[in-house]
TrEMBL record:
It comes from the Bacteria. It is a multi-pass membrane protein. Residues 58-260 form the ABC transmembrane type-1 domain. This is Spermidine/putrescine transport system permease protein. The lineage of its organism: Bacteria, Bacillati, Bacillota, Bacilli, Bacillales. One of its GO terms (cellular component) is plasma membrane. Keywords: Cell membrane, Membrane, Transmembrane, Transmembrane helix, Transport. Belongs to the binding-protein-dependent transport system permease family. CysTW subfamily. The chain crosses the membrane at residues 12-34, 62-84, 91-115, 135-159, 198-218, 238-259. Coiled coil: none annotated. Its main location: membrane. GO terms for biological process: transmembrane transport. It is found in: Cell membrane.
């Protein structure tokens, strides 16, 4: 058996990685948040964050993140459920995941062409005699593209939870006279809630910090915390305020992870148990 010293030795690379690429960057961001444009120590950045401008920005970010997560979940859950019922479910799951391997910038530019005035969407509308519509630079285009990009990250954890679900539990529910909705709400959903929570984490948290899609698809008509950080660092060169927003963004992410933290339901959700 390995001694505690040997185990601790093997953990050294892990701790080094955590310190260099997690703790150190967060500490650096927190450090810069206490300085103004002139490099003087100040608490004004934190005070400014609680002004109406940044509070509205925060609420807007949470609203769009909620919309993106809601529509993603609305599409992903039934899709994942249907996948578990298909014959070649792993193949279909792979086909859904493959688009997530494509560079985000390439997919964003593809949608610029699709939603453009001379793109296929407007060409389809022209077939029915409808005038060309500016779909780009709208809330709809921003939410639509974001949902498309995040769908694989929501489907995968939900699919894993559904795939491990013991079919006999659903059969028992139906045998006892439960309706399809009762079976779903009282059996399926509670036993797959960890997959839903994992999907929410994978979608809601990055949705708070989107900035590339807001630039290219929404045309800066949608401003999120991620966009504000980018502007503070690259446009106004106010690293202190940008770091302050990043600090609060990290805090929000931690809170969301705590709220959606998974709790093991035990062996009931494991379809392999007998």
């Amino acid at each position: 058996m390995q001694t505690k010293t040997t185990k601790a030795f093997y953990l050294i690379p892990y701790y080094v990685w955590i310190v260099l690429f997690v703790v150190a960057p967060i500490a650096l961001i927190a450090y810069y948040s206490f300085f103004d444009l002139s490099g003087n120590f100040t608490l004004d950045n934190y005070q400014n964050f609680f002004t109406s401008v940044y509070l509205k920005l925060t609420l807007s970010s949470f609203w769009y993140a909620f919309l993106i997560t809601f529509f993603t979940l609305l599409i992903a859950y039934p899709t994942a459920y249907l996948l578990t019922k298909t014959r070649h479910k792993q193949l279909w799951l792979l086909l859904i995941i493959i688009p997530s391997w494509i560079n985000l910038l390439l997919k964003t530019y593809a949608f610029i062409g699709i939603f453009g005035l001379y793109g296929p969407v407007n060409a389809f509308l022209n077939v029915f005699g409808l005038e060309e519509t500016q779909i780009l630079f709208t809330d709809f285009s921003f939410v639509f593209v974001s949902v498309y990009i995040f769908i694989p990250f929501m489907i995968l954890p939900i699919f894993n939870s559904l795939d491990k679900l013991n079919p006999s539990l659903m059969d028992a529910s139906r045998d006892l006279g439960a309706s399809s909705w009762t079976t779903f709400s009282k059996v399926i959903l509670p036993l797959t809630i960890n997959g839903v929570k994992a999907g929410i984490q994978a979608v809601f948290i990055p949705s708070l910090s989107l900035f590339m899609i807001t630039r290219l698809i929404a045309g800066n008509k949608v401003i999120t915390l991620g966009t504000a950080i980018e502007q503070q660092f690259l446009v106004t060169q106010n690293w202190g305020m940008g770091s302050t927003i990043a600090v609060f963004l990290i805090i929000f992410m931690v809170i969301i992870m705590i709220i959606t933290g998974q709790r093991d339901k035990g062996a009931y959700a494991n379809g392999k148990n007998k």
